[in-house]
Design a protein that fits this description.
The chain is mostly helical. It has one domain. The chain has helices spanning 2-70, 72-79, 86-103, 113-135, 143-156, 161-177. 19% of the residues are buried.
C-alpha cells in the first residue's frame, strides 16, 4: 500500500508541473491567436477604408452638385424655355428635380442617415416651393411669371434648405478627415 501511495504521490508531483506548463502554453497561444485575429481585422478595416474613402468623397461631391443643381437660381435657367406656360414650367421643374434625385439615390449608402434625411427634406422643400409658387400664378400664363415668383419666394427664405444641406455635408466631410 505504501508503494502504491508513493507511486501515486510521485505521479501527482510530476503531473502538476506538466499541467501548469500546459495551461500556460494554452493561455499564451490563446492570447497570441486573439491578437493575430485583431490585427487581421484591423488590417482588413484599413484596406476597406482605403477603398471606400474615395467612393464616399465622390458621393459627397455628387450630392453637393445635386443640391447646387436643384437650387432655383440654377434650376430655372436650365429648364425654362421661352414658349413654356407656368404649368409646363412647374411640371418640368418638378420632373428635373426628380430626375436629379433619382440619379443620386444610391449615394445614400455612403453618407449618414441624418444627412440623407436632410437631402430628402431639401428636395421636398424645393417641390413645395415650386408648387406653392405655381398656385399663385395662372396656369396658362407665360412661364416667366412662375420663374419670377419662385425666385422671389426663394429670396425671402432666410436660410435656404440647400444651404443647410450643403453645410451639413461639409461638416460630415470635415469629420471624416478630423
Amino acid at each position: 500500500m505504501n508503494l502504491l501511495t508513493d507511486n501515486l504521490l510521485s505521479g501527482i508531483a510530476f503531473s502538476i508541473p506538466a499541467i501548469i506548463v500546459a495551461l500556460l502554453v494554452y493561455f499564451m497561444l490563446k492570447k497570441y491567436f486573439q491578437q493575430e485575429h485583431q490585427g487581421k481585422l484591423l488590417e482588413t478595416a484599413l484596406k476597406n477604408r482605403e477603398q471606400t474613402l474615395p467612393m464616399r468623397l465622390q458621393a459627397y461631391e455628387r450630392l453637393t452638385l445635386f443640391l447646387e443643381r436643384i437650387a432655383p437660381e440654377s434650376l430655372i435657367p436650365r429648364v425654362q424655355t421661352q414658349s413654356m406656360t407656368c404649368r409646363e414650367l412647374e411640371n418640368a421643374l418638378i420632373n428635373q428635380v426628380n430626375a436629379e434625385y433619382t440619379h443620386n439615390l444610391t449615394q445614400q449608402i455612403y453618407i449618414t442617415a441624418e444627412s440623407w434625411e436632410i437631402i430628402k427634406n431639401t428636395k421636398g422643400s424645393i417641390f413645395k416651393l415650386i408648387q406653392t409658387a405655381g398656385e399663385q400664378v395662372a396656369p396658362e400664363a407665360p412661364g416667366m411669371e412662375l420663374s419670377k415668383k419662385i425666385l422671389q419666394m426663394w429670396m425671402e427664405v432666410e436660410n435656404p434648405p440647400t444651404n443647410i444641406a450643403l453645410r451639413n455635408l461639409k461638416l460630415e466631410v470635415a469629420r471624416i478627415f478630423g
